[in-house]
Amino acid sequence: MRRHRDALLPGARGHVDDMWRGSLEWYRSRSTLDRVESSGDHPLGSAVLGDLTHVMQLARDCRWLLELHSTAERAAAP
Predict the structure, then answer these.
(1) How does pLDDT run across 20-61, given as a tens digit for each residue?
(2) CA gap 53, 29 in Å, rounded
(3) Which of 12, 43, 47, 78 is most buried, by the most CB atoms less than 10 A from its CB?
């Protein structure tokens, strides 16, 4: 999932950078993108619950990035 996230990040950055700065949508997207980027590559630990939580967050991040990517593609379509 990390590779998928990393592959989607450049497009997400570009889409967020194209938004009107100061809008509520830009602020929410920028905040989420900052959190996704800062989550980085934290390794899995020895705590099962912590690892499960980490993997679930990676899945949510990937889902958000895919939705952002789909939104950007629809906006760019003629």
Answers:
(1) 999 999 999 999 999 999 887 777 788 889 889 988 999 999
(2) 22
(3) 12
